[in-house]
Amino acid sequence: MAVFALALLLLAFTGSSSGTWCVCKDGSDTILQKTLDYACGAGADCNPLHQNGPCFQPNTVRAHCNYAVNSYFQRKGQAQGSCDFAGTATVTASDPSTAGCSYPASARYAS
Fold this sequence. Notes:
Helix content: 25-40%
Keywords: Cell membrane, Disulfide bond, Glycoprotein, GPI-anchor, Lipoprotein, Membrane, Signal
Pfam families: X8 (PF07983)
Subcellular location: Cell membrane
Protein name: Glucan endo-1,3-beta-glucosidase-like protein 2
Signal peptide: 1-19
């Protein structure tokens, strides 16, 4: 019975988790652009950032950087260190999605 209660308790805690995302830290557009370029070149799905893509707006380096590093992070299975980008990005529990642009919260939806 104690095992069942413990399992139920663990499910309650894990079931309430909404997700984990990776976003860019504050920085100059030059630094964020380098991070964006690296993420897109290293496996992130940056197609939604193209003009007329669902995540093109807001058309800022920071917004595009956020999407790119998160895509990379999710595609790497949220592996330790995959949201660092030489200190320019960080993990967050706050969903950075914007109107019309949904940020994946797991590798399952990052393709």
